[in-house]
Amino acid sequence: MIRLALWIIGSLVVAAIAAWLMALPGTLTLELAGYRMQPRLGTAVVLLLLAAALVILVWALVRRIIGAPRAMARRRAVRRREQGVEALSDAVIALQSGDPARARLLAREAQARLPDNSAAKLLEARADLAVGDMPAAREHYRALIASDKTALAALTGLYDQARAQQRPEAALTFARKAMSLSPESGWAAEAVFDDLVQRGQWAEAVAMVNGEAPSGREGRAKKRRRQAVIETARARQSETSQPLMALEHALTALKLLPDFVPAALIAARIQISQGESRKAMSLLRRIWRATGHPDVAALYTHAQPGASAVDRLKRVREIIDMPPEHRAAAMAMARAAVDAYDWPLARDVLMPYVGPDLTQGVASLMAEIEAGESGDQGKAREWLARGLRAARDPAWTADGLVSDEWEPISPVTGKLDAFEWKVPVTSNARPASLPPALPVEPAELSPKTPALPLASAENQQ
Fold first, then answer.
1. pTM for the structure as a whole
2. What angle do CA 49, 55, 59 make, to 5 degrees?
3. Contact 408, 230 (CB under 8 A)
């Protein structure tokens, strides 16, 4: 309704202007080729306007005819580009859908229609890699390295290809090149860092971690832990050859992670070897209160070189209350009591843990107590048999392997900080058969060798 009203009003305005022009007084004399015309002034103005409109219309038609070939070429280019973009989109979908052969055909079509499109070239190289055509993929990626725009993406593809072909040295070369082009590239930095870790080049590895700028509380905590693990690995590496330097690294790790057991054990061992037993015992007491780790208690009992078994039992009483607050404390107390031939104490502290939650370590200690206190081989063998069906005790575990000691990297994957203190889920080793007879004399039972055979890390590898 409003549009109709506006159209009517506009028409009336135009008609009024035309009538006003035609009603203008005066005449206009035009002489052309012997002809004379004397129209009224208003009519002449209207004719002039119509002539101008006709000229404009004719020029527009002529211009459209002249520019028709160029317009057609432009439309063909737009259509070609649309087809190329559509082929590129379909190629991405096909590659993600698990059809690399179709993705490669579509990528080639996209590249033919979009010859200057880097994404089409990169997608074709990725499709070649997915198909398994390694030479073609390598050629495409190497061609893309020449461009600053696609160099990093090409190096990523070459890195993936080298890893797929089990060429770690080549993969590392591509990662280092990518890192030089883009230091903030996450995958390249991680690849170079993993290589340093696997090679044991801890100084370079910790330098990389120190240079990181994490964001958020979680990122900062992750950085501190990686630093602590690497410093502990450095301490472990130089514990024998350079004990003072190893102690410095271990203490640095403890500043980063105050309750990190591996670092505390290394630091305490070095302090004990240097005659600083008081410092070592103070450190171990703090770590024991925080973690309750059995290795801490075991080292604490041996903090004074040359001490008798009775003295070691007295020392373990310094950090373990009666009754022991958890299984690890009870086992540590029982171990010291067995070494000191205090059979009643060893039995008493273990009795709360011989029920349904019995573990292999408790069963082994109970077997030693039965054999040592009364020489009852039948009861000892019964405990060993129960231990074979019992749950395993916590141990240093990584990727299904169990190790007697903490290690900085996994022997299977080479991952840093893979070992965890937990109950092993599976075991690659089979339990050994029971011995034909148990020794009667308690002195023949080694305190460091449990009667129940457990798989070592070497056997499980």
1. 0.67
2. 145
3. yes
